[in-house]
Amino acid sequence: MNTSAWFHGGSFPFEFLNFDLTTPLSGKVPTLESQSSDFPHPTQDADLLRQLSFIPGLKEILMLRQVHALEHATVWVLSESDSAYHTIKQPNKLKLDNGLLSGLSTEEGFYLYGEVNTSDLRRAVILARHRLTSGEWDLAVHPRCGTNLSVAMLLTAGLAVGVHLLLPFRPIEQLIGLGLAATTAAELAPDLGSMAQRYLTTAIPFNLAIENIVRTRDLWGREAHFVTVNWQQ
What we know:
- By secondary structure, the protein is α+β, with helices and mostly antiparallel strands.
- It has one domain.
- The chain has helices at residues 44-51, 58-82, 84-89, 118-133, 146-166, 171-201, and strands at residues 4-5, 102-106, 109-113, 208-217, 223-231.
- It has a 5-stranded mixed beta sheet, covered by helices on one side.
- Helix 2 crosses helix 4 (118-133).
- It is globular.
């Protein structure tokens, strides 16, 4: 899967995503009372937009983050549906990611790639939004998100520059340093990438209303479903 976030009509792409890992999900939906103190407030994005409405593009950025989370959650819900028969036979089996599904988020909605029935997708989107806004913030984070790859690249580059400057300018030391930098970055990137998704590139879709789902083609001619959303206060 290559879930991504991208400004549909903007001047630059937000390409976040691309790993192939599996992550367990909790089937329990926490109540509002049991949510952690850092769980987003339902009106925080709407309040921010009212206070800073003079900033160009702020609404599109806030909407893109919420769409990005909804895209991830929809893929998780669809993956759970695909593995439902395993869960029935083995109730304690971890829910796995369906690598055949991928997505691309824009400020107008998101593309969903992969073989999926439109009715199933509609149910998955509605359920995904409900679960996210009910407290399952984990659904907003996906291990194959390009955010993880971006974090890994930045870490590797930063650590490589650091060891290059710190170690003697001899081939052996430099090669060892690069190897250590790459290994360290690979160890840290998944956790840091998840944190970046959770607090930077996604947001709980409190302000998204699902408008329509159609089968279409993206700008590159690839077949996909497009889930259109609109902003509601």
